[in-house]
TrEMBL record:
Its main location: membrane. GO terms for cellular component: plasma membrane. Keywords: Cell membrane, Copper, Electron transport, Heme, Iron, Membrane, Metal-binding, Respiratory chain, Translocase, Transmembrane, Transmembrane helix, Transport. This is Cytochrome c oxidase subunit 1.
């Protein structure tokens, strides 16, 4: 092959027709202009060094949490645009907004982005921001591993998102079932992007699970027994345990699919005696616990928000903990309800139908806990509380329709219809997204030192919640009317047109709610309502005993815990001066140093993954050697902790008014 032929082949490989559509080219131009603008701004303001020192190489869990949050909001925008494209295509019969191939790509990336690259990082953002502070720790158990986790997630997100510009997007659906994902039916690099992005990000996710499991079990302040851990920290502990057992089956399934595609294996290829059903089992052994990995942190958020804004202790703390543990256990015995129709037999279907109904019991317990906590309380309708009030009816409907789907004869009718789509979004948006956005508003002052505007926040809740119901209530009816999912278009005369029209209108109303959220962030930053107390909500747990934002070492003196809601009890008993330090008792604090190793490791993974995506095995080997080299460098380099001098600590605490006179 001559050089000219090789260049032509490379251009065709990197820029096939599906990435040269006018809308994609327009997006590419916009992103390029934005990137140039950011580079020029950083250069003009001489902030490259600041960016490197303060953010790219940081191991501070609070900054890592903020980076997770920024990434999650960007991915919420990306996944939301995909959703609007889907609904625009389906607003009426015989839609021509997108072709069938582009439609397949958009609904694939919509699901993948929202589950793995929006919801998961928002969960980890709140874990990083809140958990170490509320258990009285100075950091997570493994700070450098925490940074590695973030940067591997970031590389996974970048891999998936460059696919629509270079090479082509995946199109086999976010579940990537064979044979749709097999090479014979899905040639090109698109599906390879999907497989590699999730595997790279999945390594970071498993590492995060290990990190927060150890953090909650081993880093708690003195006196904080398991019966005194805040519920959000319990949700982090249980979620981390679920991650450790749920993500390995997904990793195996994706890895075997990659072997089928790149190396001619036949694990799931029917023509060579492969078993596609094995992939389906592996995926849903991960997939249903993943639902609870996403929703249990939301349960934890509400278990902090409701007592704070009801000015009451959480009703039924022990029942709440037991219900969370029960859900984590039962979630591994429900996965077959995702494929009742695939011939497992009546005995298997009955078992998994009953187990699915059973899991609704501990889920319902928490609803009563929150309602009884509010009962008789002095409720303040702040934005975090409004998200909770929007959540309760939404999630109840999602849970009830889940029980309907658990009834095997009914599921034969509902499955693969828009009824299932509406149920899934009822749970994930009405549960996970509402809960996580409540947590974002709740802990925002602790992250940034200023509050988001309440009036604008209320409008965002109203538009988002109303838009949600206008979007998905018609989809339940569409399911009853027989409309199946993954349809790129539909004929007229089936009674679906009006319902699809209103569903699309609802999606645009939700988009207005998101725009108001973004405007709220920008406006509140320009006109900041500074939190000078560290406790803007009159909170109950230890993070509200710290300034906003917390200093790099979190606690100048590790607190000793005597009660479940320690900060609330300190305020009630008039012991708030205990947070102040005496000059003669300050000791040096040892904290981990920043390190470039996580960024270097992520770049090596990126090089190797790109090599695998395009079957450039020489590049994959270079990336693999880079991973080994960075790990070796990290193992032998001298990463001594830095010591924060007592004088510096006293200076910081004095400025915060936390030194005894």
């Amino acid at each position: 092959m001559t050089l000219k032929q090789w260049v032509i082949h490379l251009i065709k490989l990197l820029f096939p027709p599906q990435v040269l559509l006018p809308d994609i080219v327009g997006i590419d131009i916009g992103l390029t202009v934005a990137a140039i603008g950011i580079v020029l701004f950083l250069t003009k303001t001489k902030r490259w060094g600041w960016l490197w020192r303060e953010w790219l190489t940081t191991v501070d869990h609070k900054k890592i949490g903020i980076m997770y949050l920024i990434a999650a909001l960007i991915m919420l925008f990306r996944g939301g645009v995909d959703a609007l494209m889907i609904r625009t295509q389906l607003i009426g019969p015989h839609g021509h907004f997108m072709g069938a191939q582009q439609y397949d790509e958009v609904f694939t990336t919509h699901g993948t982005v929202m589950i793995f690259f929006m919801a998961m990082p928002m969960v980890f953002a709140l874990f990083n921001v809140a958990v170490p502070l509320m258990i009285g720790a100075r950091d997570v158990a493994f700070p450098r591993l925490n940074a590695i986790s973030f940067w591997l997630f970031a590389i996974g997100a970048i891999l998936l998102n460059i696919s629509f510009s270079v090479g082509g997007s995946p199109s086999a659906g976010w579940m990537s079932y064979p044979p749709y994902s097999e090479l014979a039916f899905n040639p090109g690099p698109g599906e390879n992007y999907f497989l590699l992005s999730l595997q790279v990000a999945g390594i970071g996710t498993i590492a995060t699970g290990i990190n927060f499991l150890v953090t909650v079990l081993r880093m708690r302040a003195p006196g904080m027994t398991l019966t005194k851990i805040p519920i959000f920290a319990w949700s982090a502990l249980i979620t981390s345990t679920l991650i450790l057992f749920a993500f390995p089956p997904l990793t195996v399934a994706l890895g075997l699919t990659m072997l089928d595609r790149l190396f001619g294996a036949s694990f799931f290829t029917i023509a060579h005696q492969g078993m596609p059903m094995m992939y389906v089992n592996l995926f849903w052994i991960f997939g249903h616990p993943e639902v609870y990995i996403l929703v249990m942190p939301a349960f934890g958020v509400f278990s902090e928000v409701v007592p704070t804004f009801s000015r009451k202790a959480l009703f039924g703390y022990e029942a709440m903990v037991i219900s969370l543990l029960a859900i984590s256990f039962l979630s591994y015995g429900t996965w077959v309800h995702h494929f009742f129709e695939m011939g497992a037999g009546p005995a298997v279907n009955v078992f998994f139908g009953l187990s699915t109904m059973l899991i609704a019991i501990p889920t319902g317990v928490k609803m009563f806990n929150w309602i009884f906590t509010m009962w008789g309380g002095r409720i303040r309708l702040t934005v975090p509380m409004l998200w909770q009030l929007a959540f309760i009816p939404t999630f109840v409907v999602g849970g009830a329709t889940g029980v309907m789907l658990a009834a095997v004869p009914g599921d034969y009718q509902y499955h693969n219809s828009y009824f299932l789509i509406a149920h899934f979004h009822n749970v994930i948006i009405g549960g996970t997204v509402f809960g996580l956005l409540s947590g974002v508003y709740y802990w925002w002052p602790k992250m940034f030192g200023w509050k988001l505007n309440e009036r604008q926040g209320r409008w965002a809740v109203v538009f988002f919640a109303v838009g949600f119901w206008v979007t998905f209530l018609p989809q339940y009816l569409l399911g009853f009317e027989g409309m199946t999912r993954r349809m790129a278009t539909y004929p007229s005369g089936l009674g679906w047109t009006a319902l699809n029209f209103w569903s699309t209108i609802g999606a645009y109303i939700m988009a207005v709610g998101f725009i108001i959220m973004v405007y709220n962030i920008i406006w509140s930053r320009i006109h900041p309502d500074w939190d000078t107390t560290g406790d803007p909500w009159d909170g109950r747990t230890l993070e509200w005993s710290l300034p906003s934002p917390a200093p790099e070492y979190n606690f100048a003196r590790i607190p000793v815990v005597h009660a479940r809601d320690e900060w609330w009890e300190m305020k009630r008993e008039g012991r708030t001066d205990e947070v102040k330090i005496s000059p003669d008792t300050v000791k040096p604090i040892h904290m981990p140093r920043n390190t470039p190793m996580p960024v270097m490791l992520a770049l090596a993974f990126f090089v190797g993954a790109v090599g695998m995506v395009f079957s450039w095995y020489w590049l994959a080997i270079v990336g693999g050697l880079g991973v080994v080299a960075v790990l070796a460098y990290g193992s032998f380099a001298d990463y001594r902790e830095m010591e924060i001098d007592p004088k510096r600590i006293l200076n910081i605490e004095a400025k915060l008014g936390r030194v005894e006179s």
